[in-house]
């Protein structure tokens, strides 16, 4: 079996199986998808983020490089989305969805499980993805929200929204306790480990349940296909250019290139639905990009292992 096929069957197929289980369970039992999503956001993901940062040793220079790259990458995707929307001459609402579908990446429910499967022997790779998750969440509730509402939200309201995100608290606590070498009492550590260990399965089953509720009709249209092209293909191309420009190497470069290749975030569809801005197109883009990513993410992982050994 070729290395490409091995990657696909060991990393992507397990993810697809868990997504399929989530979709089948949702069709059978009709779960409250929002409740499942809240369970991941407020319980499983913070525990996984906390444990990962608590156990990982990452130097300040590496942290600075990663944050610098992620900020540049997000800014580049904003520019790419704006240029694409103008070139396509999209209506205002469709342009907002188009831009969000490129900038907002599924770094949490999709990206973090991939990183945990791929970098099981190298926790730095997972820690880098955690940083991407944090910055992507901040981007979602600032840039993503601004794109969809005509009235601007006050700066303090945005700050409050960000500070309420449990993964921010998990990030701060995990990093602080790591730095101070503070032990975690066994009665607390054991349940934390149980929750963190369940994150990959619960997050992907939840994502599968969410995707199963999206309408499939008119799935193939110009906006959906082109936004997925920008997200899944142009994103990694831009990331590769930034990696070369910043002189990044090894597992840092590999992890960042892979992190740039994940599909459109489910949050982009949730925000569009909440503010009634072309919600069908937003949801269809999430579904289409997630399905196509089974191939494109495998390709990017394969290329990254060749370029950055």
What would you say this structure looks like, in words?
The protein has 309 residues and is an all-alpha fold. The chain has one domain (3-307): Up-down Bundle (Na+/H+ antiporter like fold), CATH 1.20.1530.20. The chain has 14 helices and no strands. Helix 3 packs antiparallel against helix 11 (222-246). The chain starts with a helix and ends with a helix. 45% of the residues are buried. The model has no long low-confidence stretch (mean pLDDT 84).
Short description:
With 309 residues, the protein is an all-alpha fold. Helix content is 82%, strand content 0%.
Describe this protein with a few key phrases.
309 residues; mainly alpha; Na+/H+ antiporter like fold
CATH class: Mainly Alpha
Describe the largest sheet.
Answer: none
How many discrete structural domains? Answer: 1
Q: Would you report the number of β strands?
A: 0
Contiguous helical run count:
14
| CATH architecture descriptor name | Up-down Bundle
Write the H/E string, N to C.
HHHHHHHHHHHHHH
**Radius of gyration over alpha carbons?**
19 Å
* pLDDT < 50 stretches: none
Tell me, rounded to a whole number, the average pLDDT.
84
Estimate the global geometry from the Cα principal axes: globular
Q: How does the helix and strand content classify structurally?
A: mainly alpha
N→C terminal distance: 20 Å
């Amino acid at each position: 079996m070729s290395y490409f096929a091995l990657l696909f069957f060991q990393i992507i197929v397990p993810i697809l199986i868990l997504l399929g289980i989530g979709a089948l369970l949702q069709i059978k039992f009709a779960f409250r998808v929002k409740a499942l999503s809240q369970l991941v956001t407020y319980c499983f993901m913070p525990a996984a983020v906390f444990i990962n940062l608590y156990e990982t040793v990452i130097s300040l220079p590496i942290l600075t490089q990663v944050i610098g790259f992620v900020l540049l990458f997000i800014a580049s995707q904003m520019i790419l989305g704006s240029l694409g929307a103008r070139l396509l001459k999209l209506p205002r609402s469709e342009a907002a969805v188009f831009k969000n579908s490129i900038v907002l990446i599924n770094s949490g429910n999709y990206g973090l499980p991939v990183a945990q499967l791929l970098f099981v022997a190298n926790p730095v790779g997972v820690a880098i993805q955690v940083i991407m998750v944090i910055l992507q969440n901040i981007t979602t509730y600032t840039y993503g929200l601004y794109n969809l509402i005509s009235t601007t939200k006050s700066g303090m309201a945005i700050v409050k929204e960000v500070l309420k995100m449990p993964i921010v608290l998990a990030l701060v606590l995990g990093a602080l306790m790591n730095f101070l070498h503070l032990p975690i009492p066994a009665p607390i550590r054991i349940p934390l480990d149980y929750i963190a260990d369940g994150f990959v399965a619960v997050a992907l089953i939840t994502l599968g349940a969410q995707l199963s509720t999206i309408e499939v009709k008119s799935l193939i249209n110009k906006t959906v296909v082109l936004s997925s092209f920008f997200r899944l293909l142009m994103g990694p191309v831009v990331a590769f250019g930034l990696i070369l420009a910043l002189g990044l190497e090894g597992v840092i470069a590999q992890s960042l290139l892979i992190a740039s290749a994940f599909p459109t975030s489910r949050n982009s569809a949730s925000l569009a639905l909440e503010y009634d801005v072309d919600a069908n197109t937003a949801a269809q883009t999430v579904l289409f990009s997630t399905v196509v990513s089974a191939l494109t993410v495998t390709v990017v992982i394969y290329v990254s292992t060749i370029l950055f050994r």
